[in-house]
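Hello,

Our lab assistant flagged a job as stuck in the queue for most of the afternoon. It eventually completed. Since we weren't sure the result was trustworthy after the delay, we are filing this so someone can double-check. Below is the sequence as submitted and the structure that was eventually returned. Let us know if re-running is recommended.
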Amino acid sequence: MDKLLTLIFWSLIGIVFYSYIGYGLLLWLMVLVKKLFLKKSNLDKKAIFFPEVTLIIPAYNERDFIDAKMQNTYSIDYPSDKLKVYWVTDGSDDGSEQYILENYCNKKEKFEVKIFHQSKRKGKSAAINRVMQFVETELVVFCDANTLINKECILNTVKHFEDEKIGCVAGEKRVLQNETTAGDGESLYWKYESWLKKLNSDFHYCIGAVGEYIAFRSSLFNPIPEDTILDDFVISMQIAHKGYRVIYEPNAYAQEAPSANEQEEMKRKVRIASGAFQALFRYPEWLNFFKHPILSFQYFSHKVTRWLIVPFSLFLIFFTNVLLFFQDNQNVLFSSTLFLQLCFYCICIIQHFAQLPSKLFRMPYYVLLMNWAMYKGLIRYLFKQQPAAWEKVKRVV
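-- returned structure --
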């Protein structure tokens, strides 16, 4: 019994280590080896490839951010006759449609601007399906309404599509750092996540584009179920399973303010968690190692372990450690691991109530917050309590 518990304990620790640290190190080594045998890419050369692009901005009640978003859009460095801007404001009741129509459509300031609106709110996935029917350009870019993108984003994106094997380009999400637990934790988490995405892309596939900035070939788009929660993730994975590469471009980025507080961040995390389980169970073929071995390996290592295995492993690690400690409380190793776990959870409890400014307290708490969100997200998914339509998250102003 002791040997079995010990094996389970160390196996679970190995899984958590692999998910958060080991996989990144393994990717780094594999990319290093890959670069030794491949010629250097010439994508750093000045872009001379200017295909037509449609920039689509889904928005729900973003009236107060429209002017800032449009000024940011006008600053994009791209030929004005090659870029169209489509707003889709389905379900908005704050006057967004009329404001865009009166102030930006048919003004000919730089890019052609169109507005697509229907009064019924059916969620972002339904809006994407609807607006994609009107896209006539070879490439399409989706960018959230509450984000600001860099002016070279389109140029840095389209150059990749000169390669016919590239089907999708994932941009970088940058969260503005803020002196809150949610802001600090989210910002640091996305820096780490961006590093992983870059390694994944350099190895073969970027796993999971973000809705803040995603570009793909319009011909590769298939309508997605209207109840899809993680539309960006599903679209990019569907393209990858058609045999096209999904790559990461850190120099096409979208910046957004962090969640206003941990309650708002938790709301966002639970929704993402629910969408993760929806994707996991709806598309089991994404783990078909015989059809797409590299893609399935990356998907399992980067996403499935974090979604399905790590949250439950953390609980089981603590539980088995307690059992091992009481079976042999003279064992220094198991006493030490239990002490370290208790310190970790104490830090999280203190941070929850005290909201201390130290990263020593914020980061462990944010990690625990993410894993607790997976439990809540699973319950929402199982009981069909998570609607497809996003509930707006309050962000730092």
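-- support follow-up --
The delay was a queue issue, not a problem with the job. The result is valid. The two ends are 55 Å apart (CA to CA). The mean pLDDT is 90.
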